[in-house]
Design goal:
single chain; 387 residues; alpha/beta; TIM Barrel; Lyase, Ornithine Decarboxylase, Chain A, domain 1; eleven-stranded mixed β-sheet; eight-stranded parallel β-sheet; 11 helices; binds pyridoxal-5'-phosphate
Length: 387
């Protein structure tokens, strides 16, 4: 077992690596064989655990990894990942030596950045880059053929720099209306036509586009949310070409059970008042774990049945209303299946009035992650006790 370390709290995340594997394999099968799969493992793999997801993706057909910034790439290198890694966001020009040292591919999205980076590059260094084109996302990226040509010329003259790729990012690939997506695609194609040489990797699609629009495949796609088994948006859920399998579940155990009498109150503000004699259980999870106060009233699963969170959620604990007294130690599922019951990440996102992407990301690193494959535990990550 890798990264073995214990944990001593009764709240944990389980990540089903078989589900990640099957999502990656299904995407691979959905794509033509000459299209590479870049597994997006930024933000600790959307809260799932960077190295475990990276390994699983690579073992099941991913060729490349992508993260948001260099620290995330270096973290993967330190954990033994040797596959190519692209940093999608901005890096500092003065840090290019680190990219060279760790064989990390950087994104170039401005001519001035490139010039500065060249000043910091050692003579014998080689730096792999992908050029980022802003075709309508309005975040980072070059926007004109003049800037593209200037960057290309500068790179072609510098033997230390290898222009391995060029890419863009869609703002609306997960929406039913295709208009803006098509506009972005045609801007990208137009800019590509001005390149003197085509780089090895041309990529545009995130999960939504990769699932829906083969016309935007080019020769690589960037798979994020769907690798974790989550739909890029609710409106395209019915169009998905294969069944996504959610990998992330969240569990706790009841650490205290008591009978609260009619009129007695629960938690900060004493806002919850028992309407009759009722059973209340306490869970060791709170807003510091990412189980934020807005989740007051949300259901959890106990013995396969839905019961509500009552009273305010505290930093480290919250209370649930039970239909009857249950044993201390009873497992409570906050996200996932239990018996006949199921609480999806989409349900939590709806309660919080946000998108599913945000939910696993906000479950903090105070909550240990357990990795499962074929029903067996195959690893664990407890960032509190590691190192
Ligand atoms: C996060 C990100 C992705 C992944 O998008 P999903 O919708 O999660 O598949 C792809 N490309 C870029 C540039 C990103 O920032």
């Amino acid at each position: 077992m890798e990264n073995e370390s214990l944990f001593y709290r009764d709240t944990w995340v389980e990540v089903d690596l078989d589900h990640v594997a099957s999502n990656v394999m299904n995407m691979k099968q959905h794509l033509p064989s000459d299209v590479q799969l870049i597994a997006v493992v930024k933000a600790n793999a959307y809260g799932h655990g960077d190295v475990q997801i990276a390994r699983t993706a690579l073992q099941n057909g991913a060729e490349y990894l992508a993260v948001a910034f260099m620290d995330e790439a270096i973290a993967l290198r330190k954990k033994g990942i040797v596959a190519p890694i692209l940093v999608l966001g901005a890096s500092r020009p003065e840090d290019v030596h680190l990219a060279v040292k760790h064989h990390i591919t950087l994104t170039v999205f401005h001519y001035d950045w490139l010039q500065k980076a060249q000043e910091y590059l050692a003579d014998e260094a080689t730096l792999d880059i992908h050029i980022k084109v802003d075709t309508g996302m309005g975040r980072i990226g070059i926007r004109t053929k003049e800037e593209l040509n200037a960057i290309e010329n500068q790179v072609l003259r510098d033997p230390r720099i290898n222009m391995e790729g060029i890419f863009t990012h869609f703002a609306t690939a997960d929406e039913l209306d295709h208009t803006y997506f098509e506009q972005q695609l045609s801007v990208f194609n137009e800019l590509l036509s001005h390149l003197k040489t085509k780089p090895r990797l041309i990529h545009a699609s995130n999960s939504a586009a990769a699932l829906r629009f083969p016309i935007a495949n080019f020769n690589a796609i960037r798979m994020g949310i769907s690798m974790y088994g989550l739909t890029p948006s609710l409106e395209i859920e019915s169009e998905l070409p294969f069944q996504l399998q959610e990998a992330f579940t969240l569990h706790s155990r009841i650490i205290h059970v008591k009978k609260v009498h009619k009129g007695e109150r629960v938690s900060y503000g004493a806002t919850y008042e028992a309407e009759e004699d009722e059973w209340v259980g306490t869970l060791p999870i709170g807003y510091a774990d990412g189980w934020i106060r807005k989740l007051q009233g949300q259901d959890v699963l106990v013995n396969g049945m839905r019961v509500p969170i009552v009273g305010r959620i505290c930093m480290d604990q919250c209370m649930i209303k039970l239909p009857k007294g249950v044993d201390v130690g009873t497992v409570v599922t906050l996200i996932g299946e239990q018996g006949q019951g199921r609480i999806t990440i989409n349900e939590i996102a709806r309660t919080l009035d946000t998108i599913n992407y945000e939910i696993p990301c906000i479950i903090s690193n105070r909550v240990p992650r357990i990795y499962k494959s074929s029903g067996q535990m195959v690893g664990m990550e407890n960032s509190l006790l590691q190192n």
